[in-house]
């Protein structure tokens, strides 16, 4: 049995993870943490892997505390930067432990990101629209940032230049934010859980790649896979695709 701790255990995702781990035949929940609970070598209660779905402002400090407590970590919380990745990579390597950070554990979203990067070199235009429930605290979504970065990298490697766009005035920011030059638009709407559309355009054609999570259970197979695959690794892994052989 894999001994699992959950941080952010009272939240929308954390509570769903507690149920999924409880239902998994090869795992057991041994520790639960939420706001105000201290993560120590004692309080992790022998956990081998911790799953963090907390909030962007605390996730990095949770990961450092879990590494100090001798636990490998699977992180779904968003809000990571290149600097926070670097600090965690260094800590995990020094401790000989593993951290897997993924902005999205839904199979559809992981594949949508992959398909977008595959398609990007063949289209002049690319934009990302992410759509989420109105209780989400961060924008753009971590998935949209990762998607845009993947598209930008694929375009650069293919030698593509600027996208066609004659916009001269945009006082309201209607053209969206830019992530590595790719326009990203965020929608917050009652009734949604998590959706993303990637629009790719050429003269006379458009490809739309869309992924929808209608329920938080959609993230659970990926989270459980992450827990199983993080064991035995060392250092920082970014993206579930990296442990799926994609
Ligand atoms: N990677 C994915 O597949 C995926 C899927 C859904 C959500 N998310 C991300 O997961 C995060 C959580 O989303 P949510 O909808 O569950 O949010 P939520 O607000 O429902 O839950 C966050 C929980 O973290 C707790 N918390 C606050 N401070 C804490 C601390 N110091 N230590 C431990 N817990 C603390 C809160 O009390 C709350 O219970 C967000 O960043 C969201 O974007 C990622
Ligand atoms: O509900 C959220 O919040 C989600 N956040 C992730 C993101 O920011 O990409 C993944 C989807 C759900």
Q: Proportion of β residues?
A: 25-35%
**Percent helix range:** 25-40%
CATH fold-level name of the largest domain = Rossmann fold
Number of structural units classed as domains: 2
Under CATH, the homologous superfamily of the largest domain reads NAD(P)-binding Rossmann-like Domain
What is the name of the CATH class of the largest domain? Alpha Beta
The shape is: elongated
- Indicate the CATH architecture of the largest domain: 3-Layer(aba) Sandwich
Radius of gyration: 19 Å
Pathway: Amino-acid biosynthesis; L-lysine biosynthesis via DAP pathway; (S)-tetrahydrodipicolinate from L-aspartate: step 4/4
Domain Dihydrodipicolinate reductase C-terminal: 108-243
Subcellular location: Cytoplasm
Catalytic activity: (S)-2,3,4,5-tetrahydrodipicolinate + NAD(+) + H2O = (2S,4S)-4-hydroxy-2,3,4,5-tetrahydrodipicolinate + NADH + H(+); (S)-2,3,4,5-tetrahydrodipicolinate + NADP(+) + H2O = (2S,4S)-4-hydroxy-2,3,4,5-tetrahydrodipicolinate + NADPH + H(+)
């Amino acid at each position: 049995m894999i001994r699992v701790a959950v941080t952010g255990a009272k939240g929308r995702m954390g509570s769903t993870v507690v149920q999924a781990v409880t239902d998994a035949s090869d795992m057991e929940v041994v520790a639960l943490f939420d706001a105000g609970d201290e993560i120590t070598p004692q309080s992790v209660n022998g956990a081998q892997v911790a799953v963090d779905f907390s909030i962007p402002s605390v996730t990095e400090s949770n990961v450092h505390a879990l590494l100090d407590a001798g636990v490998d970590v699977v992180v779904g919380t968003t809000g990571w930067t290149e600097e926070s990745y670097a600090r965690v990579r260094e800590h995990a390597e020094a401790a000989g432990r593993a951290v897997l950070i993924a902005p999205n554990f839904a199979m559809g979203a992981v594949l949508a990101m992959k398909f977008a990067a595959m398609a990007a070199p063949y289209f002049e235009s690319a934009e990302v629209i992410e759509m989420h429930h109105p209780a989400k605290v961060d924008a753009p979504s971590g998935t949209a940032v990762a998607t845009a970065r993947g598209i930008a990298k694929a375009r650069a490697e293919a030698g593509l230049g600027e996208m066609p766009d004659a916009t001269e005035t945009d006082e309201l920011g209607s053209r969206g934010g830019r992530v590595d030059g790719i326009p990203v638009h965020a929608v917050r709407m009652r009734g949604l859980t998590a959706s993303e559309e990637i629009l790719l355009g050429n003269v006379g054609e458009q490809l739309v790649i869309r992924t929808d999570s209608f329920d938080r259970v959609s993230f659970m197979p990926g989270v459980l896979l992450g827990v199983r695959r993080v064991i035995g690794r060392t250092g920082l892994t970014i993206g579930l695709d990296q442990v799926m052989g994609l």
